[in-house]
Amino acid sequence: LVNGVIFTGGWAKKYEYFEIVNKIFNKALERNDAGEHFPVYGICLGFELMSIIISQSRDILERFDAEDNASTLQFVENVNIQGTLFQRFPPELLKKLNTECLVMQKHKYGITPENFRGDPALSSFFEILTTCVDENNKTYVSTVKAKRYPVTGFQWHPEKNAFEWGSSAIPHSEDAIQVAQLAA
């Protein structure tokens, strides 16, 4: 029995994998439209693929330099975190997300907030919750939630803090682990 989907990170944006993700994503939306709560998480590549599917454009993604670094999350001004994964976070941890490098970045692609908001399909489907800045000071959308569906997209890796130990760049502090646990 499947009651939700996580589209994970990786590198395969085309061919069979894209088609399978497209079918599963649309089936998840259908199940939600039918009244079944069927959550979807898209992490890194998963978020990129959802963005391509929704915008119906592979050109929506841009190059970024965020391939192996920890970063902060900058909450969008006046964002309401009620009904998002961040509502579970203690206020002190939310503050630390803005000032301490508690999330791991491992991607080459993303979407600027301007291009995200400029795409009618993306901006009507998702609300931007957070942004990040890459190594070249270029801002990209880092967390989104769907307006009508239980769909969350991450352009960061909540799983790496607790489960991946192969890179010294991955934050493993108590706060970073708590971020991973609360994002689950």
Automatic annotation (TrEMBL):
InterPro entries: Class_I_gatase-like (IPR029062), GATASE (IPR017926), Pept_C26_g-glut_hydrolase (IPR015527). The keyword Hydrolase applies. It catalyses: (6S)-5,6,7,8-tetrahydrofolyl-(gamma-L-Glu)(n) + (n-1) H2O = (6S)-5,6,7,8-tetrahydrofolate + (n-1) L-glutamate. The active site is at C44 (nucleophile), H157, H157 (proton donor). SUPFAM superfamilies: Class I glutamine amidotransferase-like (SSF52317). Residues 3-167 form the Glutamine amidotransferase domain. Its EC number is 3.4.19.9. One of its GO terms (molecular function) is gamma-glutamyl-peptidase activity. PANTHER family: GAMMA-GLUTAMYL HYDROLASE 1, PROTEASE FAMILY C26 GAMMA-GLUTAMYL HYDROLASE. One of its GO terms (cellular component) is vacuole. Keywords: Hydrolase. It holds the Pfam family GATase. This is folate gamma-glutamyl hydrolase. One of its GO terms (biological process) is tetrahydrofolylpolyglutamate metabolic process.
